[in-house]
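Dear colleague,

As promised, here are the two records you asked about, laid out in our usual form so they can be pasted straight into your sheet.

NAME FIELD: protein one
SEQUENCE, THEN STRUCTURE:
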Amino acid sequence: MSQLLDNLVSLLALEKIEENLFRGRSEDLGFRQLFGGQVLGQALSAASQTVAPERKVHSVHGYFLRPGDASLPIVYQVESPRDGGSFTTRTVSAIQKGRAIFTLMASFHGEERGVSHQSPMPQVAGPEGLKNELEVCLENQHLLPEAVRESVLCAKPIEIRRVNGYNPFKPTRSEPVQYIWFRADGQLPDDDQLHRYLFAYASDFNLLSTAALPHGISSWSPHMQVASLDHAVWFHRPLRMDDWLLYAMDSPSASGARGLSRGLVYNRAGELVASVAQESLMRDRSQQDK
């Protein structure tokens, strides 16, 4: 494992401070507030640590209630609504300054045989030869605000490569569809739950930008106020975060200062391993001033 990936695994591992009570540190990725994927991944990590290992998380639903502070730790309180014969349910509250900033409900299921089908994997270029996100940032570093330049222009534990070459620093109008390859930057242990909450962390990247594509805007547009409002993940099949995954995203709607984005995630063998949906705040401050 690379040092960066080791740090991310440590970030998501959490400190147990009491039964069903965990504490996680925060990291500053250069966004205007705490990165939602961090809270999502840590909350799922907290829930997973209270469930028997033979039951794997199959669905996650979370709501972002307040902006998080990247300079403060987060306390995660886990509750156990149900431990059934087939399914286990957990709810998690992420707390800063005595108030919930995020709430999550996760369901866990033991392995069962059943019918199987899936949507086919899109036929797109593989990750080989594509620029990664850091290379794009370095080419456009003169467009980055000075306050976030250092945190953005550094190597990351999750490598991202865009198939369609979208540049968030010079956004142009296009159809709301993106194809992105991503993987952890290093080899990970054979821990299925670890791969799933690492996936939850990474699944928050680029959904909002998909909804922004038809409008020629991005998270870096100075007049835009953007944030994740909710996030849902369904795990269909085992996945590995240390091998390339294809994130096929689209956005069917944006209205009322909100945008909806969806994603299907495939492994290199063409298996559909997860589905994701997210609604995001997309508030144009310039329109409010008129």
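NAME FIELD: protein two
SEQUENCE, THEN STRUCTURE:
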Amino acid sequence: MIHSGIADEAGRPIETQIKAHQELGWDYIELRMIGDQNLTDVSDEEFERVLGLVNDAGMKISCFASQLGNWSRDVTGDFDVDKEELARAIPRMQQAGTKYIRTMSWKQSNATLEEWKDEAIRRMGELAKMAADGGVALAHENCTGWASEGPAETVELMEKVNSPGLVVLYDTGNSVGYDKDTLGFLHGVIGRIAYVHIKDMTKEADGSSHGVFPGEGQSLLKQQLTEILRSGYDGVFSIEPHVAAVIHEGKKGGDPEALYESYVKYGKMAMALFDDVRGAA
């Protein structure tokens, strides 16, 4: 088992992100935002600086949390944006020794359901070939996109693309946030999971949802983790708190010290929860 986390939720400077993971005693870090840019968008010089600091800290990058097919991109939009981002990312992943890069499967926009499905599968096939040729893999998260509509769609995407360049990234909290059946989604993909995000969410009476500390929400987190471990999964568990910072909502957090402390607290609580579930698993 490997503990990691999307570290910009501790702070945007890479130095702050590394410090948080050092305090948690983690050897792996998942990188998304460095300052105001995604890791895939920073200059080559900035990437070299970031990677040098990560290496000097004795850490490895577990995943590039990219923008591929995410909540900011329509399935009817310019696909070259995704291809160019992946083309930039692959040599950086090779240099860092990172296997996974997160992807989603595009917003529907004004496409019909059938157009959304067909184009998402087509695009993912092309990206997966690029990834496989580069010795890396797209990790599709159950978040935004056609394949996140349900476990059947996720499985269909995996089977139709049928490539070592595409795997399943399962987020424990997204079903609550997107009004899906949490255990139903998990059971539909559990044998295919290659990477896990730890998130716990609560849905309010007005329909809004927000992240809470692990074990305090409606995501049945303890049960999910128990079942994931029982399935034989022994890979990365990467926290994505969404407590003080939610990147896709523009919520960067207020006080930097409070942001940092909430991330470290989340990581410690997640590790404690794992201690509780290991026996049951």
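A couple of things worth noting about protein two: DSSP finds nine helices and twelve strands in the chain. The radius of gyration is 18 Å.

Best,
R.
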